[in-house]
Amino acid sequence: MKVDGKHFRSIWRERGGWSVGAIDQRRLPHEFIVAKLTSCEDAAVAIRDMLVRGAPLIGATAAYGMALAMREDSSDAGLKRAYDTLVVARPTAINLKWALDEMRTALAPVDPVERAEAAYARADEIVEQDVEINRGIAGNGLKLIEAIVAKKKPGETVNLLTHCNAGWLATVDWGTATAPIYLAHERGIKVHVWVDETRPRNQGASLTAWELGHHGVPHTVIPDNTGGHLMQHGMVDLAIVGTDRVAANGDVCNKIGTYLKALAAHDNGVPFYVALPSPTIDFAVDDGIRDIPIEQRSGAEVTDMTGRTADGRLETVRIVPEGSPVANYAFDVTPARLVTGLITERGVLKPDRASLAAAFPERIVAAAE
Fold first, then answer.
1. Domain carrying residue 8
2. What region, left, alpha or beta, does residue 210 occupy, with left being phi > 0 and alpha being psi -120 to 50 degrees?
3. What confidence tens digit (pLDDT) does each residue in 187-199 have?
4. 157 and 235 belong to one structural domain
5. Distance from C-alpha of 108 to C-alpha of 102, rounded to nearest angstrom
6. pLDDT tens figures, 115-164
7. Where in the sequence numbering do the catalytic residues fall?
């Protein structure tokens, strides 16, 4: 997508080289900094410390991390060590393990002398595959927006609500939840996005608002607790969120607070869609509420906030009383019964086992291996 008219991806292999460039999302929206990854450990730290974040981007970064590792040690022991280092970097997003499994499967039969080259080639394929998947999501999701225009709001603005950041910064390009929005904007459809701030890391306020603004999409940042009020007053036509993992039964794991938005949407008759690339489907998990591990992150994300002061300095301040315990559950699970549909690269699906299995039978095979 575009930053002030110039095309960017969130991660890329340096032209003609072996190192990897990535936008340091910890510094947004106040500073646009490109980080350089030169080792497997760099990739693991980037994932763990959320220099990169978002399930598809985590997978792409892990793939490049394996390639960087093969440049250092392409032996069988080196392959295993790289896999083991990266797979524990973040526990919830299934794309991480998917990408590493893809890399290991591709590299295991390759002569160690040729593994580095093969690793970069496979990682590049995974990155390009993500872009194409998200283009597919864009086209299928666009039909939902066009239907609202045709049936309810010809010539009027379609108001969409999203949660967290499921934009191009969470993928390689286009995004998941934002992909249909960007495509609608480019097709000349009037859209406006209600952007949840998404505490505690504020990925909506700092990342989604940043990318929408730089791409020229009309939007308004709102506190997390505002969505229900907007829905009650008919100010939301469609809610679209992303996901870090979808269970076989259609349950959706996403940034904490998604479940509450789904409840509000259900109560007010607002369609609630989840945009997901197929690698996010985990057929090894039968019940999302019961079986998906929920990451608990540092309490500092809750107690502290960083922002720019009036004189331009970046400062971190504490907003919680000293000594008060905090809990920081990073994700929640929205049951399939609250999801209107799943926007995938192969169409808009019902959130149930049969529909997912029919559309993506290869994911069932992968889960069984």
1. 2-128
2. alpha
3. 999 999 999 999 9
4. yes
5. 10
6. 999 999 999 999 999 999 999 999 999 999 999 999 999 999 999 999 99
7. 244
